[in-house]
Design goal:
The complex is a heterodimer of chains A (466) and B (109). Chain A is 37% helix and 15% strand. Chain A is built from 16 helices and 14 strands. A three-stranded antiparallel beta sheet of chain B has the order 2-3-4. The longest helix of chain B is centred in the C-terminal third of the chain and has 17 residues. The chains are: A alpha/beta (466), B alpha+beta (109).
Chain lengths: 466, 109
């Protein structure tokens, strides 16, 4: 296998697809299907600088050899902290008791953010944005359930809008919610917010099983009512469905049901993230092959209705060094005033040996720890050995730093890697109008496994490919 | 004071015949019976919004003081003046009821 020293351009990949190779150079915005001979000629030309006699192939080699024609490799953030968005956790409390929820905390710890703290957080963020000359800022609400502390939401929406108007800018609001709030509040959200991510796991039998109230009643009726109201509003509605081993084969059906009953802008399918509660009720994550297969089928259903399928880790339009807020300088403010780089619970970071606290807001003062900011920026794909030779690395950037943090070398791809590699391959082939190959490839399970588990996707490592 | 030792404040409600829509940072309110229309901007739009999602007087004062960096007394004065005007315009109606200081539909956590 080539070392990075021998392989200065590590961003040209070759993935076997049946009898061909998918040549993929995300920084050059180039994808092509070539045979083994052509792939080897390209590799040799890149290694030696020797032209290729075959003119079209030589054009590709010249393009790939030219740094000038490539997008720069994404770099970690540097300089002053300028959050791309402010994350607010109005409360960790929630009015549901979802079977798989990893955010469950004891009720006595369901602190609601103090209004003065919420004001200070918004003022701090808006001041940074003004100093940085940002015209557009974003505030994201997460929980618990943000609307269980709706006064914090109301205050911060109006405050940020007022501050942004004073500065001649605009502010976008995004909320992730369970949708079990009053009809009045639902109509408010539909008109005042810009993006609403609504958790809806599917029809009543699935949703009620996964997402009951604490007294055991299902929450489907209210969540579906909210989805209908939000379908009529000006906010972009994204439906987010958690998929388990029991529901994975119903993904295409769920997608069709969503499109028939609501008008979402997008539908996001997320595999179950195992947690202590999910283990207790024996809810399991889906098999990654089944998830990818059904996601691709569901994608066809969604696209036929003009609905955007979302599996963010396989977004080939994006080139990034980190998948989540951590590492991109986002500032997440908790009800107790802690400013952190991550939405997840502190106990979950700590279980991974991470400390993602960036600082604290207290008594109107914001104190950030420069070392903590630098540490959060180190959480990027450049520092993930598993990702080093994977063709997906600039799109998924290794995924969540807390929930997906395998430290192993290439070829130890886990569940999330497998489904991400399959869906990313599908997205690249679709962009080339070669989507039919996806199904042929997936049906040849042995060949597909060879591609998915390929230890290095580097074109320059092709010699070791069978 | 009310019987439970809390302060009694009027509770304001939007007049039933008024419908409204929010657009580009302002609120357009229309009386469906008379056809009269009002455009609410800035603090007016904020108060209208807080009122129509169900906040009681004291919470609106608190939120206004935080949003516009006003002392509470000044926020209350501004709110009183606005509500008086809206009552005269029949945009809002009032009922004297105890104010527990919370939105009428707030989830409990």
């Amino acid at each position: 296998m080539h070392t990075l020293e021998r392989c200065p351009d590590s961003n040209i990949f070759a993935i076997p697809i049946l009898s061909k190779f998918l040549l993929y150079a995300p920084m050059h915005h180039l994808a092509a299907l070539v045979d083994l001979t052509a792939a080897r000629r390209l590799r040799d030309s890149l290694l030696t600088g020797t032209p290729i006699a075959h003119e079209p192939l030589n054009d590709v080699a010249r393009l790939l050899a030219s740094d000038a024609k490539a997008e720069p490799v994404p770099a970690p953030k540097q300089g002053d902290l300028v959050p791309p968005f402010l994350g607010l956790l109005p409360t960790r409390g929630c009015n549901l008791a979802c079977q798989y929820c990893g955010f469950l905390t004891p009720q006595e710890s369901w602190q609601v953010m103090d209004l003065e703290l919420a004001r200070d957080a918004v003022d701090w963020y808006m001041n940074i944005a003004n100093r940085a000359g940002l015209q557009h800022v974003e505030i994201h609400y997460f929980g618990g359930e943000p609307f269980c502390a709706e006064e914090v939401v109301d205050l911060t929406v109006h405050l940020a809008r007022t501050r942004a108007a004073e500065a001649g800018g605009t502010v976008r609001f995004e909320v992730t919610t369970n949708g079990t709030f009053s009809e009045k509040r639902c109509r408010w959200a539909a008109d005042h917010l810009d993006t609403i991510v609504l958790s809806l796991d599917g029809p009543a039998d699935i949703h009620d099983h996964h997402r009951p109230y604490p007294d055991g009643r299902g929450s489907f009726e209210t969540a579906a009512r909210s989805a209908r109201i939000l379908s009529e509003g000006s906010a972009d509605l994204f439906l987010r469905a958690c998929v388990t081993s029991e529901t994975v084969d119903r993904m295409p059906q769920i997608a069709a049901w969503f499109c028939e009953h609501f008008r979402p802008r997008g539908v996001c399918f997320e595999p179950l993230q195992p947690s202590a509660p999910s283990r207790t009720v024996q809810l399991e994550p889906p098999d990654p092959w089944a998830f990818a297969h059904n996601f691709i089928q569901a994608t066809g259903v969604l696209e036929s209705h003009g609905v955007e399928p979302v599996y963010a880790a396989a977004d080939i339009q994006t080139r990034r060094v980190t998948f989540c807020p951590a590492g991109q300088d986002a500032a997440i403010v908790s009800p107790d005033g802690t400013v952190s780089a991550c939405y997840l619970l502190q106990r979950d970071w700590e279980a991974r040996g991470l400390d993602l606290r960036l600082g604290r807001i207290a008594d109107g003062t914001v104190q950030l720890n420069a070392d903590a900011v630098a540490s959060a920026r180190d959480l990027n794909v450049h520092n993930k050995p598993l990702c080093a030779r994977c063709f997906c690395k600039w799109h998924c950037a290794g995924g969540c730093h807390v929930n997906h943090a395998p430290a192993g070398p290439p070829d130890t791809y886990d569940r999330l890697c497998v489904q991400t590699r399959i869906i990313t391959l599908r997205n690249v082939l679709k962009a080339m109008d070669q989507q039919h190959l996806v199904w042929e490839w997936l049906q040849e399970r042995e060949a597909a496994a060879q591609s998915v588990y390929q230890p290095s996707d580097y074109l320059l490592d092709l010699e070791e490919a069978p | 004071m009310n019987g439970r030792g809390g302060w009694v404040h009027p509770i304001y409600r939007c007049t039933p015949s008024i419908v409204w829509v929010r657009d580009a940072g302002q609120t357009l309110a229309v009386d469906e019976e008379t056809g009269q229309a009002w455009t609410l901007c800035g603090v007016e739009a904020v108060v209208w919004d807080l009122l129509t999602v169900g906040y009681a007087y004291r919470r609106i004062v608190l939120l206004l003081s935080l949003i516009f960096s006003l002392p509470a007394a000044e926020a209350a004065q501004a709110l009183d003046s606005l509500l008086r005007r809206w009552r005269e315009m029949d945009l809002v109606q009032v009922s004297e009821e105890a104010d527990d200081g919370k939105p009428d539909h707030q989830c409990s956590v």
